[in-house]
């Protein structure tokens, strides 16, 4: 997954750390008018999710049931975590009764087999492939494979019969690849590297692995997944937690003890909120729900823009992104589901409302890759992953 950081002078030099393999100078499109903060007007989130899906199938879906990375610079590329994010979005639609999304979900799941490494007994998904499924190869990413496993476990929950078992089997294969891929070692006292090039060890990579191990343990009862979950959780808290802010830092890299990059990202911490909620339920430890609640409060202290009512991408970036910022809403929804505190839903809704104003094209219903909180400075890319996350979160919000 990619993270973009602007320096303090807002020079358009992009630090790219993601399997989506895109970068370069951001060229803004014609800016929309500046808009005020949201007014609290009721929103039909299911309709918005449906409109987003219509945009996606009309502009990004291929005849192979893969998805183009975007409509501009990478329209002939197909990325693993973009595809599975759309499966995630469709699973959310099925969960609210929109059963027509089963076909999209299952067909893209079948396409994903083109991305699986069949020449290595350990398997694992490659990060990219051609739109027709050919050309798989190159690097593999721990976060992408962990997310794929988690997506499949949600698809498992909304399917039946052979489809249900196929999703569970592939989620288990993703978890087994994490265990056997050789990307966990004693450098920095443990932790998973981001990918097979071993550039660094990020919070989000390990947080997603933690989620997958917990879920697999809950479904299979196999102790190996429990043991890995405990190991990953201990490393994250020993190495990546910043007690001063109550948040998790970005990543650690470099020689020796390593350099800690202390930027705080919304989606890193959202992932950890979800991981702690799972840990509380699956390990029967209510203290982890408290940890999740405290982390949610820290997010809403440091990562929330109280003027525009939305989550920042990170503490060094002034613009917002529909996928990474929307992840904050998912964490708030999960907190509400865990403790029924309505205040979490307020943050979840306001954040999505802000993204709908700042990043959404009201004519096409597509979401721009980045924009300012005020809707200015939109980047031209229309990414599949951004559409997927906006579809997903709005489907989830429609329940409440």
Please describe what this structure looks like.
It is a single chain. The protein has a three-stranded antiparallel sheet. The chain has a two-stranded antiparallel ribbon with strand order 1-2. A two-stranded antiparallel sheet has the order 4-5. α2 (80-95) packs parallel to α12 (384-397), α5 (161-180) crosses α6 (203-220) and α11 packs antiparallel against α12 (384-397). It has 400 residues and is mainly α. It is built from twelve helices and eleven strands. It has helices at residues 45-59, 80-95, 101-111, 142-157, 161-180, 203-220, 223-239, 266-282, 287-302, 322-339, 342-358, 384-397; strands at 77-79, 128-130, 201-202, 241-242, 247-248, 251-253, 259-261, 304-305, 310-311, 319-320, 371-372. It has one domain (66-397): Glycosyltransferase (Alpha/alpha barrel), CATH 1.50.10.20.
Secondary-structure blueprint:
Elements: H1 45-59, E1 77-79, H2 80-95, H3 101-111, E2 128-130, H4 142-157, H5 161-180, E3 201-202, H6 203-220, H7 223-239, E4 241-242, E5 247-248, E6 251-253, E7 259-261, H8 266-282, H9 287-302, E8 304-305, E9 310-311, E10 319-320, H10 322-339, H11 342-358, E11 371-372, H12 384-397
Antiparallel strand pairs: 1-2, 3-6, 4-5, 6-7, 8-9, 10-11
Helix pairs in contact: 1-12, 2-3, 2-4, 2-12, 4-5, 4-6, 5-6, 6-7, 6-8, 8-9, 8-10, 9-10, 10-11, 10-12, 11-12
């Amino acid at each position: 997954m990619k993270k973009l950081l602007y320096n303090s002078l807002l020079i358009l030099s992009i630090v790219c750390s993601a399997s989506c393999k895109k970068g370069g100078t951001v060229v803004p499109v014609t800016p929309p008018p500046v808009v005020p903060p949201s007014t609290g007007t009721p929103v039909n989130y299911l309709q918005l999710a449906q409109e987003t899906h219509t945009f996606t199938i009309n502009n990004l879906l291929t005849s192979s049931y893969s998805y183009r990375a975007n409509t501009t610079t990478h329209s002939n590329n197909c990325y693993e975590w973009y595809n599975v994010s759309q499966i995630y979005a469709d699973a959310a639609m099925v969960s609210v009764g929109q059963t027509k999304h089963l076909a999209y979900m299952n067909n893209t799941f079948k396409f994903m087999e083109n991305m699986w490494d069949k020449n290595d007994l350990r398997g694992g998904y490659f990060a990219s492939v051609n739109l027709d499924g050919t050309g798989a190869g190159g690097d593999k990413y721990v976060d992408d494979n962990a997310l794929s496993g988690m997506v499949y476990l949600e698809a498992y929950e909304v399917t039946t019969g052979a489809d249900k078992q196929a999703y569970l089997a592939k989620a288990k294969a993703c978890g087994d690849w994490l265990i056997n891929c050789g990307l966990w070692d004693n450098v920095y006292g443990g932790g998973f590297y981001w990918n097979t090039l071993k550039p660094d060890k990020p919070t989000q990579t390990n947080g997603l692995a933690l989620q997958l191990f917990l879920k697999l343990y809950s479904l299979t009862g196999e102790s190996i997944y429990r043991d890995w979950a405990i190991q990953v959780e201990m490393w994250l808290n020993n190495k990546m937690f910043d007690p001063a802010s109550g948040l998790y830092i970005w990543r650690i890299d470099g020689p020796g003890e390593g350099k800690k990059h202390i930027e705080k990202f919304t989606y890193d911490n959202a992932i950890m909120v979800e991981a702690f909620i799972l840990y509380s339920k699956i390990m029967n430890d209510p203290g982890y729900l408290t940890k999740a609640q405290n982390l949610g409060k820290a997010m809403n202290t440091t990562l929330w823009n109280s003027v525009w009512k939305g989550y920042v991408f990170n503490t060094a970036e002034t613009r917002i992104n529909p996928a990474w910022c929307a992840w904050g809403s998912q964490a708030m929804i999960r907190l509400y589901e865990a403790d029924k505190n309505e205040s979490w839903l307020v943050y979840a809704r306001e954040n999505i409302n802000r993204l709908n104003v700042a990043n959404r094209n009201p004519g096409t219903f597509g979401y721009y890759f980045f924009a300012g909180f005020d809707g200015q400075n939109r980047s031209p890319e229309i990414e599949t992953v951004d559409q997927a996350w906006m579809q997903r979160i709005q489907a989830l919000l429609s329940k409440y």
